[in-house]
């Protein structure tokens, strides 16, 4: 097979690279995504909307991956066949109203928000006339943020949810979006928006709020203790260094599920407390063993840890 | 200055290398310690007591750092000027009875246990007639264990508590022990045994039991969620993979302080829950900010993270 035939078949398999990918928001996730898409030849052009003037100037002055940065979302999306909203969660739905009249008829619109039900409902309603919306949640966050920390490998080896509503008939678009994330090195899981929100409440939001509560608790202790902390504490609280604004928005959008997850966690913690109170060494050990077995079975190969 | 004079002054400064260091217990901590002490020329000879025959055979067959491995603690400690008990916490006090009659009059005895009050009380009582006991707690644990994971750099850059009783007049021995740990690259903090147990209940034991409770909670969820976990969850639960037996012993020996720390933590978590229930975005953000500020101020240079 000659190269062109081979490459053609790869394109078919991929479902097509995009002529123009528009990234809305040039923070850590947006900038890393634009850079990765360009490097991996998944986008002919990358256009960006950035709210802040200094970011636009920086991008237009010479970011190799960004063909043009715009001051208006509606301008940035013109001509794009893939649009990815990469702003903080609470601003994503506002963007839909800004861009809905300017997109191509065949545009695929997605986002990278960590909570999906509300975003996907608004997305579906916003793009009934033109375009197709499917939510995404690439689990590529970090306690770092901003364009200056952008890294085209941020998405590699991480999980990504793609969250169509079960009653939608958009298989071709789902495949296209799935392939896009997979081409960035992600492992894609399809779930409904509500299942997504239930799952991440437990595996992502709960750990975050526990890490924050532990850090909050320790902040009340003498600062002389700071220098005594070991690697265990530092690992356990690492994500507490994440952006409070972003996590407040997540808390707002997934409040119900997070509260249920906290209830269930406290039930587990109560068992441990009772075993401690009663000095039941065997029960404590069994509890710890259950946790150990769980932790040990978590896959390590698909993570950067 | 010629070399001998220079070296002599270094010895004075150090407080003397030890003629013979005896390590009781050749697990991760003991084997790593013996290897490090030999590599850094802090011990003329390293003798080891190992409970299991196959470990003794392995050591006697050719561990470069171990001069001889013994089947009886009382034999292993003969001639040692430094003895370090490196068994699991619950077995440390038993060792004191085994060795008290066999040690040198001037032997310095210490241990590496993570809980200090009970060990130090028994240690002081056990070595009234011969030797001096001072507790140590090098914070060099890992979720790994065993001789096969030994690493002479395990102690480097970590914190170490040295925990004499405040009313003891053993300044020379404290300095000797402090210098020993510092020569291994550790940062030493002196506290009383009870202050130690209070501090580690919050900065070490509480994080451990929270990580375990989170892992326990998630073990009840569908195993299909395992593959979806991100780096945040993995960091937050990493220490839950630690040895359940060891942590059961720690729970037993520091039960009171751990329960108090859990009470206080739950009070903090309650604040967060109330803010979530009441949808008080500002209060949630302030809570998360307090945690973020704490986590960011933790020193990163003195850790392997």
Summary tags:
homodimer, 305 residues, alpha/beta, Rossmann fold, 6-phosphogluconate dehydrogenase C-terminal fold, six-stranded parallel β-sheet, three-stranded mixed β-sheet, 12 helices, globular
Oligomeric state of the chains present here = homodimer
Write down the Rg of chain A.
22 Å
| Number of beta-strand segments of chain A | 9
CATH architecture heading of the largest domain in chain A: 3-Layer(aba) Sandwich
Return the string of H and E elements of chain A: HEHEHEHEHEHEEEHEHHHHH
What's the mean pLDDT score of chain A? 92
Shape of chain A: globular
Structural class of chain A: alpha/beta
What CATH calls the topology of the largest domain in chain A is: Rossmann fold
Largest interface comes to: A-B, 91 and 91 residues
Spans of at least 5 consecutive residues with low confidence of chain A? 1-15
Number of separate domains of chain A: 2
- The order of strands across the largest sheet of chain A is 3-2-1-4-5-6
- Helix fraction of chain A? 40-55%
How many helix segments of chain A?
12
Tell me about the biggest sheet of chain A? Answer: 6 strands, parallel
Structure described in brief:
Chain A has 305 residues and is an alpha/beta fold. Chain A contains twelve helices and nine strands.
Please provide a written account of the structure:
Two copies of one chain form a homodimer. Chain A starts with a helix and ends in an 8-residue tail after the last helix. Chain A contains twelve helices and nine strands. In chain A, α5 packs parallel to α6, α8 crosses α11 and α11 packs antiparallel against α12. Chain A is α/β, with parallel strands linked by helices. Chain A has two domains: 189 residues, NAD(P)-binding Rossmann-like Domain (Rossmann fold), CATH 3.40.50; 102 residues, 6-phosphogluconate dehydrogenase C-terminal like domain (6-phosphogluconate dehydrogenase C-terminal fold, Orthogonal Bundle), CATH 1.10.3660.10. In chain A, the strands form two sheets. The first copy, chain A, has a six-stranded parallel sheet with strand order 3-2-1-4-5-6. The N terminus of chain A is likely disordered. In chain A, α2 links the parallel β1 and β2. The interface between A and B is large, with 91 and 91 residues.
């Amino acid at each position: 097979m000659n190269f062109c035939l081979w490459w053609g078949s790869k394109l078919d398999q991929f479902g097509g690279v995009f002529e123009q990918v528009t990234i809305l928001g040039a923070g850590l996730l947006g900038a890393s995504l634009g850079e990765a898409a360009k490097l991996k030849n998944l986008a002919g052009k990358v256009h960006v909307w950035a709210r802040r003037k200094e970011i636009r100037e920086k991008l237009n002055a010479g970011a190799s991956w960004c063909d043009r940065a715009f001051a208006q979302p509606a301008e940035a999306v013109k001509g794009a066949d893939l649009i990815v909203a990469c702003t903080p969660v609470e601003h994503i739905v506002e963007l839909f109203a800004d861009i809905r009249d300017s997109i191509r008829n065949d545009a695929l619109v997605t986002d990278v928000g960590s909570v999906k039900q509300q975003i996907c409902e608004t997305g579906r309603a916003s793009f009934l006339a033109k375009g197709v919306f499917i939510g995404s949640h690439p689990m590529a966050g970090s306690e770092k943020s901003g364009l200056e920390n952008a890294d085209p490998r941020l998405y590699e080896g991480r999980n990504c949810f793609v969250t169509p509503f079960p009653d939608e008939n958009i298989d071709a678009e789902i495949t296209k979006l799935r392939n896009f994330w997979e081409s960035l090195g992600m492992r894609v899981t399809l779930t409904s928006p509500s299942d997504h929100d239930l799952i991440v409440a437990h595996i992502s939001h709960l750990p975050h709020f526990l890490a924050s509560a532990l850090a909050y608790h320790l902040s009340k202790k003498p600062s002389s203790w700071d220098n005594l902390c070991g690697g265990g504490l530092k690992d356990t609280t690492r994500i507490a260094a994440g952006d409070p604004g972003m996590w407040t928005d997540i808390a707002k959008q997934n409040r119900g599920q997070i509260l249920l997850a906290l209830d269930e966690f406290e039930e587990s913690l109560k068992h441990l407390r009772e075993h401690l109170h009663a000095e039941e060494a065997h029960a404590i050990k069994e509890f710890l063993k259950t946790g150990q077995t769980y932790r040990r079975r978590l896959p390590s190969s698909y993570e950067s840890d």
